[in-house]
Write a structure and sequence with these properties.
By secondary structure, this protein is α/β, with parallel strands linked by helices. The chain is built from 12 helices and 8 strands. Strands 3-2-1-4-5-6-7-8 form an 8-stranded mixed sheet, with helices on both faces. β1 (about 5-10), α1 and β2 (about 30-35) form a beta-alpha-beta unit. The longest helix is centred in the last third of the chain and has 22 residues, at about 200-225. It is elongated, with a radius of gyration of 21 Å.
Length: about 280
């Protein structure tokens, strides 16, 4: 793919996507900017990417632009690069704008740009992209050319599994797919703590916990069995597993997870008001 890609923002999620992209795309095709320019320069030097002196300069040189900044500061960045994007649309060579901004709709981005017909893709990304095991969900409408969609899927596939979704469900998907790795890390840490409490050393407890979660996830994805059925396969009558399951239920584990997803979804909706924290 002979396209130049600009990443505006090199934080945790942007950085994960950049590192993943560099595994299968020539790093010389990737341009980085960040409000802390030394951060972009350090990552570019490490990976072999290029930097630009400003966000508009990066956009000017790119075919595809990934907006990877915090939603609270997005309005200013979008306004800054909007003239370059509008000029490309006027020349009938629009640059594809791809946003990973939590809660911010394509309609809101276009409104800030002052360009209601501009091709914008909304992306849900998660940090396992760093190791090629991410889930990359995208939503777009007919303003995005089929060729650009194909190229976008190629770029995102460097990060992991790629799937398309209607934009009306993106906030919900963000809570389940993009926020949840933090919940899973907490679960792995708690499993590891339990192992240490019962006598395992920390290194092995953490490895055992992480591998168990990894394997359990693979069972759900590869067998297509309902998670409840897989749980029942492990819980024998009067056994140690059902004792642990009962303890989790008594502590409100299931409801706590549901509440966490609901809280993340509610915050995504709040973040949709670009420029507000």
């Amino acid at each position: 793919m002979n396209k130049t890609i600009a990443f505006i923002g090199t934080g945790a999620m942007g950085g994960a996507m950049i590192r993943a992209a560099c595994r299968s795309i020539d790093p010389a095709q990737i341009i980085l900017t960040d409000y802390l320019q030394e951060k972009a320069e350090a990552l570019a030097a490490e990976l072999g990417c290029r930097t630009a002196p400003s966000n508009p300069a990066a956009v000017e040189a790119a075919d595809y632009v990934f907006l990877c900044v915090k939603p609270q500061g997005a309005a200013a960045v979008i306004q800054e690069i909007a003239p370059v994007l509008r000029d490309s649309l006027a020349d009938d060579r629009p640059k594809l704008l791809c946003s990973i901004l939590a809660g911010v709709t394509t309609e809101a981005i276009r409104e800030i740009m002052g360009s209601p017909a501009y091709p914008v893709v909304r992306i849900v990304a998660n940090t396992p992209a760093l190791v090629g095991n991410g889930l990359m969900i995208y939503a777009c409408d007919a303003s995005v050319a089929h060729g650009d969609v194909a190229d976008l899927e190629t770029i995102l596939s460097c990060c992991g599994v790629v799937t398309q979704l209607e934009e009306r469900l993106v906030d919900q998907a963000t809570a389940v797919a993009a926020c949840s790795p933090a919940f899973v890390y907490m679960f792995i840490e708690a499993l590891s703590d339990g192992g240490v409490l019962t006598g395992l050393d920390r290194t092995r407890a953490q490895t055992f916990a992480a591998q168990a979660v990894y394997g359990a996830a693979a069972m759900v994805l590869e067998t297509d069995f309902h998670p409840g059925a897989l749980k029942d396969m492990v819980t024998s009558p009067g056994g140690s597993t059902i004792a642990g399951v009962a303890a989790l239920e008594e502590a409100g584990f299931r409801q706590a997870v549901i509440s966490a997803v609901a809280a993340s979804y509610a915050r995504n909706v709040q973040l949709g008001e670009v420029g507000k924290g």
